[in-house]
Amino acid sequence: MTDEHGNEENRRWQADAQTDATTPRIGKTPRTGIHECGSAGFDASQGRRVPSSADQGASNRVPMDENPDEGDPGHGDRGGDRPAPGHSHTGQAPDSPITVPGWDEYFLGIAAAVSARAKCTRRRVGAVLVHEHRIIATGYNGAAPGRPDCLEGACPRGRLGYAEVPAFSDYDVPGAPGFCIAIHAEVNALLFATRDTAGCTAYVTDQPCPGCRKALAAAGVVRAVWPGGQFDVDELVDWSR
């Protein structure tokens, strides 16, 4: 029986609530004190705090200030391969001032690199044509493309030393001991220029011969520079020099 205040009914609700808290029901998750959302909870049956999935994931993380590849030579940009503080990839001491070559020195260095391709036993020459500090052509001395060259013994001049055939002696008389089969570096640069050569400067590893001076002047080159000397536009065709 229940009184008018429903006390009996209240007691049954309280008993049901206690049973529901300790007895799993079919189709429902047992109430163990562990939150289902993955956060940490308290396991009443074991009397301890149960770590959440987020806690377990955190235990597997590498701390931000630790690098698992530290010192690993297999990682080129990490670990033991990192440059020491102050290291310079230019090979320059970290505290020394940085120096930059002037334009003439810079382009003469490029001409020297070009000369490595030259096909001559007497003198390997490289030339660079420059317009407003931009390279428009390079050339080196050698025979016409696809033809036997000096390195193959095809050049009469190349078979003789400077004691027999001095420098700047006539190159262009077929049958003469000093005949040269090569197209000179300056002329090759003019032949393969990517634009009009008027107003250019020619940087050459050696002083241009008279024939190359004429060709440079005819192409509009206004200056020729080589290590230790130069010609301006008038000096290119001044045959007293």
TrEMBL record:
Species this protein is from: Cutibacterium granulosum DSM 20700
Database matches in SUPFAM superfamilies:
Cytidine deaminase-like (SSF53927)
MF term (GO), any: dCMP deaminase activity
Q: Where is this region: Disordered?
A: 1-98
Limits of the CMP/dCMP-type deaminase domain: 102-241
Lineage, top-rank taxon, reads: Bacteria
The biased composition feature labelled Basic and acidic residues covers 1-14, 72-81
Residue ranges annotated as coiled coil are none
The lineage, from the top, is: Bacteria, Bacillati, Actinomycetota, Actinomycetes, Propionibacteriales
This protein's UniProt keywords: Hydrolase, Metal-binding, Zinc
| CDD domains, A to Z | deoxycytidylate_deaminase
Name used for this protein in its record = Cytidine and deoxycytidylate deaminase zinc-binding region
Q: What is one cellular component GO term in this UniProt entry?
A: cytoplasm
Which cofactors is this protein said to need?
A: Zn(2+)
Assigned protein family? Belongs to the cytidine and deoxycytidylate deaminase family.
**Known PANTHER family for this protein?**
DEOXYCYTIDYLATE DEAMINASE, DEOXYCYTIDYLATE DEAMINASE-RELATED
Q: Name one Pfam family in it.
A: dCMP_cyt_deam_1
